Amino acid sequence: MTALTHAGKDLLRTAVIALDDAYQAATPGERYVAAHVAALRAGAALLATRARPARSSRIRSVWQLVPGIAPELGEWCAYFDAIGRRRIFVEIGREHVTQRQADDLVRDAEAFLEQIAAILGVGLPIPSWRHAG
Q1: What tens digit of pLDDT does each residue of 27-63 get?
Q2: Residue 65 and which of 21, 75, 129, 132 are 20 to 30 A apart at CA?
Q3: What is the pLDDT of residue 124?
Q4: What Å distances lie between residue 57 and 7, 44, 104, 109, CA to CA?
Q5: For residue 34, with 0-12 CB atoms within 10 Å meaning exposed, 13-18 middle and 19 or more buried, which class applies?
Q6: Are 19 and 34 in contact, with CB atoms under 8 Å apart?
Q7: Strands of 1-133, DSSP E
């Protein structure tokens, strides 16, 4: 198992903060955007810890790189990549999401974050108020 790098720790911490932001967001749009950001930062944490520098000059996204080091996350990455453009439109106010769409993305981002943490062999601080009914 690879030790979690300083950058990996920081990115994982910011992923948890973004997930908390999603749970506390006032609107479905804010919730949706924060959830996607949490997933993106979790993927970046994995890359910061496990990726090897490449000589390619082509720019690739987190969603394209993660499956190369964690193939089991390929479906998650395809999913988050597919909604990335929508997230941008939601963020700038050109699209709207329902409460259910936002809630679904928050749950998906949390599951993805937990899977990344398990791969990295670290625990996550999960605030108990999130799970309170």
Answers
A1: 999 999 999 999 999 999 999 998 776 666 677 799 9
A2: 21
A3: 77
A4: 22, 19, 36, 30
A5: buried
A6: yes
A7: none
Burial (Cβ within 10 Å: 0-12, 13-18, ≥19) of residue 91: middle
Q: How far apart are CA 124 and CA 127, in angstroms?
A: 9
Residues of the chain with pLDDT under 70: 1-2, 53-57, 126-133
Task: Give the closest residue to 113 by CA, choosing from 8, 3, 19, 7.
Answer: 19
State residue 80's pLDDT score. Answer: 97
Listed residue (77, 83, 91, 79) closest to 28, CA to CA: 91
Q: Name all contacts of 104-108 with Cβ < 8 Å and 24+ positions apart.
A: 105/22, 105/31, 105/32, 105/35, 105/36, 106/19, 106/22, 106/23, 106/31, 106/35, 108/35, 108/39, 108/76, 108/79
The yes or no reply on domain 6-51+60-121 and CATH 1.20.120 is yes
Residue written as token pair 């937990």: 114
Q: Domain coordinates of the chain in residue numbers?
A: 6-51+60-121
